[in-house]
Amino acid sequence: MIFYETKHRIIQSIKDIIEQISKTRYLVIAKEITKKWESIYGTTADNMLTWLKSDKNRYQKGEMIIILNGFQEIKNKNISEKIINTFKILKNSLSFKESILVTSQIYKIKKNKLYRYMLKNKEQ
Predict the structure, then answer these.
(1) CB under 8 Å to 75, separation ≥6 — which residues?
(2) Contact between 113 and 121 (Cβ < 8 Å)
(3) pTM given for the model
(4) Pairing mode of beta strands 2-5, 64-68
(5) Which one of 32, 55, 58, 115 has the minimum C-beta count within 10 Å?
C-alpha cells in the first residue's frame, strides 16, 4: 500500500500502523521524491517511529510517501507441542484422518500442513 502523508500526520500514521497492523511490518518513507533533497528510508514500523522521533528534521518539512509492505503468510510456523498432544489424544479414539480434521479445526490451522507434519514425524 502506498500513502501520501503530511508532516502533521506522519507520526500518528506510523503509530496507527503499529497499533492496527503490526509493529514488525516493513515500511519505507520516501521524502521529497524527484527533488534535490530526496531521501528514502526503510525499516519496521516500530523502528521507523523511533527513527522519525529522534530528529524533527526528518518529518517537519517536505512531502512524504509511506510504502507499506503487504501481508505475508507465515509459512514456517511450527506445530506446537499442544497441537501434537491434542492430535495424539484424538488418535487413540479416531482414525488418523479424523484426528487431523478435528485438531485442525480446534487450532484453526490448515489440514494439509498438519497432515504433512504428522506424516513426517510419525515416529514421535
Answers:
(1) none
(2) no
(3) 0.58
(4) antiparallel
(5) 55
